Amino acid sequence: VQLQASGGGLVQAGESLRLSCAVSGISISRNRMGWWRQAPGKQQQRESVAVITSSGGIIVADSVKGRFSISKDDAKSTFYLQMNSVKVEDTATYYCALDSGGTYWGRGTQVTVSS
Known about the structure:
globular; mainly beta
């Protein structure tokens, strides 16, 4: 199982960005998957941002609720994090992960929001 995150970059506050996580080696249709982030200087703290549960439910962190959304495309075996109205405090390395017997992590993609 491999996860490849992409779409990070440098954006200004208020702009939008979409992260993608391409999954190979397993079907994503009935697995729990989501996005986590790790802010600079917080090496031991990885925050859950948004999750799609195995039954298709959506859980979004309060810190991003109303601004970020998570979705998936089973046919493309890819899930996404749409980030709107980004804030400086959203600056972090974003990781995608999928649960299937164990947890599989992708390499992070850096998102930097400038003021």
